[in-house]
Amino acid sequence: MRTDEFVNLLAAGESPVPRGVAARRFSVAIAVALVGGAVLMLALYGIRPDIGLVAWTPIFWAKVAFPMSLAVGAAIAVGRLARPAARVGMGLPLMSAPVLVVWLAAAAVVATAVPEARLGLLLGQTWRSCPFNILLLSTPGFVAMIWAMRGLAPTRPRRAGAAAGLLASAIGTLVYCLHCPEMSPAFWGLWYVLGLSLPTLIGALLGPRLLRW
């Protein structure tokens, strides 16, 4: 049998993939990440009692904007990496910029603080638990993102897994902001970034196993 005949035989009966499949799958995954993370946060930690007051402060919305902007960049990267041989594209600068901004803000805060206050700005009150809290709240989203990816066609599973982990952790961090008492960019730049990195690293490690065809 000639090659072209073999290809035609393999393709016989196949229909085009319906439009919007990726958008629908990732919409479900993002909803699961938000709802699942919120349920875990409410059950395990609760909303910070002064949320009604801090919600009126610019620094609170700066904290919320950090994971939200990361989620936008990660969502673009995930959507592209779910396609065969696609590159991250604009997702990469959109993921990098929020981290760079927070690190610059952290450096300014630490540099202008009195020396005896600098360690407190970096450690806050919750440095021991913060990264692991973010990891836990990211779990529903991570499972949902891997499910969404597996129904598509990623050909770079390590990058796709890392992007899925970052998107899940960005949503988990967004939910965590409703509980977390830390209000210093120096804290976010260290411990939030570490918490965001854990699911990203797990996704990169498990991607070749979980996302292979």
UniProtKB/TrEMBL annotation:
The chain crosses the membrane at residues 26-47, 59-82, 94-114, 134-153, 160-178, 190-211. The keyword Transmembrane helix applies. Signal peptide: none annotated. It comes from the Bacteria. The keyword Ribonucleoprotein does not apply. InterPro entries: NrsF. Keywords: Membrane, Transmembrane, Transmembrane helix. This is Anti-sigma F factor. It comes from Pandoraea capi. The lineage of its organism: Bacteria, Pseudomonadati, Pseudomonadota, Betaproteobacteria, Burkholderiales.
